[in-house]
Design brief:
Its main location: cytoplasm. Keywords: Cytoplasm. This protein has about 325 residues and is of the alpha/beta class. Helix 1 packs parallel to helix 3, helix 1 packs across helix 13 and helix 7 runs parallel beside helix 9.
Amino acid sequence: MSKKERCDIAMPSTTIKRVVVFGGGTGLSNILRGLKRYPIDLTAIVTVADDGGSSGRLFDQYDIPPPGDIRQVMAALSDVEPLIEKMFQYRFEGSDDLKGHSLGNLMLTALTTITGDFARAVEQMGLVLNIKGKVLPAANQRITLHAELEDGSIITGESKIPLYGRKIRNVFISPEDVKPLPETAATIKKADLIVFGPGSLYTSILPTILVQDIRDAVLQSTAKKVYVGNLTTQRGETFRYTASEHVQALYDHAGEPFLDAVLVNNVEAFRRAYKSVGEETEPWLVENDLDKLQALVPEVFVQEIATVYNGTIMHKSADVADVLMRYIERT
């Protein structure tokens, strides 16, 4: 196979590498579960644009950044007894006041009230959960996400954007001059590897680089930059997007091309392996338009990195982490 088809290199180095991962939600959490097994300096920079569900209610009632994506990432990086992690992720039912809230969200809200600072609360919760690495919110204040649709209409609110079912032209945040934590830009600039995705393109990945200082730090960083492609497209956001269209959206919002490599799933191998996913019920897998993708990114790695778990298509966290670590050792 050519270098555009696989990343097959040894890992002899003993130098601690600095890896920064961007995104939010279950996609990012899944990748972090694989990366935390390696002896690396790991930092997750997580979106704080969520305004739905438990996060949205706490967002409105306590005027704090929404904790949901942060909670999921911290659970993924935690090194505690499984029961403690399960308790942290527990979602209440029954009571009208508590229904829908996760215990982790409530704990982060309580710590924010006690310390008076959301980032400080995240730091302290990281000590409680004994997380591997650091978790940095993209900003230490509320951020509102907006989307301009193809018809020119503007939608406000992360949870509302996918509901309209029309193609998204671009997304933007308010306030526009929001600042990240002081250490965030420095962490990005010192990184050896920066990873974007997987996750909801417009509502999880892009909001992190819409913060001006973060975007500038990414573009200035000499780190190798990799996008881990989504496995399926998403109704209301990226319906029937190809792999190159995902990359182009990243470039459009960053203002220039910046990726060194893309890791995408071997779609045909996935279809052969999971014949039980019928044509009528098959979700819209992201197609690898390799000619266009290779014109946008210097290296494209096509690997079998998808599996089906409880009826859901998801990344093989260990396999993705292995490819990323082998790539960083080669650079």
